[in-house]
Amino acid sequence: MSLKSARWQSVEWPTFLAIVLCYLGWLAAGALVCACYRVVGCVLLALVVAFHSSLQHEATHRHPTRLDWLNEILVGLPIGVFYPFRRYRETHLLHHRDGTLTDPHDDPESYYLDPARAATLPVFQRWLLTANNTLLGRILLGPGIACVRFALGDLRRIVAGDRAVRRAWLIHGLSLVPVVVVVQTVFGMPFWLYVSGPVYGGMALIAIRSFCEHQSHREASGRTVIVEGSWLGFLFLHNNLHVVHHARPGLPWYRLPAAYRAERGHWTTVNGGYVFRGYRAIARQYLLRRKEPLAHPFREGA
Predict the structure, then answer these.
(1) CB 94 within 8 A of CB 107
(2) What count of other Cβ atoms lies within 10 Å of the Cβ of residue 109?
(3) If you average pLDDT over residues 11-30, what whole number do you get?
(4) Tens digit of pLDDT for each residue in 121-180?
(5) How far apart are CA 177 and CA 193, in angstroms?
(6) d(CA 252, CA 257)
(7) Which of 41, 163, 208, 214 is geometrically suited to a Cys-Cys bond with 33, CB 3.0 to 4.6 A?
């Protein structure tokens, strides 16, 4: 077998096909459906934005190819607007250091605060972040809070002279140009409406997935969730089976369900029974009730 042939066989074609269908779906929902049924079109666009975010997550783990630059080209068009793919890839891979998972200092995706910082929060900020720890708050407020937090953190790094972060945002800004052009000329939609409707809606859908993905736990293996039997699984590319993904990040999304079914007892034991029977079960428990404290429980006295 030639080297060229081996490279083509190493491509994960289901993921490649999903990327193609994602962009075609984006164009169809925006150009065709929105022209006749604006509300329906915006809902479909939100679903596509969420699905694209799931595909970007796959690309951070070298799917559908082993080449980072090619994966960046494939999923880098920022139809979700807010996050530079390079920066997302960098921070997400840091998040996969399971030994520091949920730690507010070392896990970029942690929703916990250092206890000292939590104790000095202004009243309004405390209320906002407490609301963000309910499922309804995470859906309504979470995307905005996450975007502001991410952007301010990167702005501080750019001001401090971090060229890699500056380059990532420059590439992101240039990549946004065709998105703005397509949205305004092909979709016939003001860009502010696209951002406040489909983009925010897509991020809200992803917030449903991430709400319970991790919890504080003494053991690293007990920090990552399993959400079974959800129709949202495909939209999230089966990251509802999150403990399997963290244990085997090189496994593509379409193999996660079989890996989970084959060793269900093992996975539910490994994560200490941190299991939900679908996202409805999560909503029943946490729609209006705070799931976690603001301060990381195990940082006390650290």
Answers:
(1) yes
(2) 15
(3) 96
(4) 999 999 999 999 999 999 999 999 999 999 999 999 999 999 999 999 999 999 999 999
(5) 16
(6) 10
(7) 41
Task: Provide mean pLDDT across the span 44-62.
Answer: 97
Q: What's the burial of 135, exposed, middle or buried (CB within 10 Å: 0-12/13-18/19+)? A: buried
According to the model, what pLDDT value does residue 1 have?
A: 42
Q: Can you tell me whether residue 113 is helix, strand or coil?
A: strand
Kindly state the helix (H) or strand (E) to which residue 140 belongs, with its residue range: helix 135-140
Helix, strand and coil percent figures for the chain, each rounded to 5:
65, 5, 30
In 3D, which of 103, 91, 101 has the Cα closest to residue 56?
91
- Our CA angle for 130, 217, 153, nearest 5°, is 50
Cα distance between residue 210 and residue 247, in whole Å: 17
Q: What are phi and psi of 228, to 5 degrees?
A: -95, 155
- Does the pTM surpass 0.90? The reply is yes
Residue corresponding to tokens 């169809």:
28
**Sequence-distant (≥ 6) Cβ neighbours of residue 90 within 8 angstroms:** 168
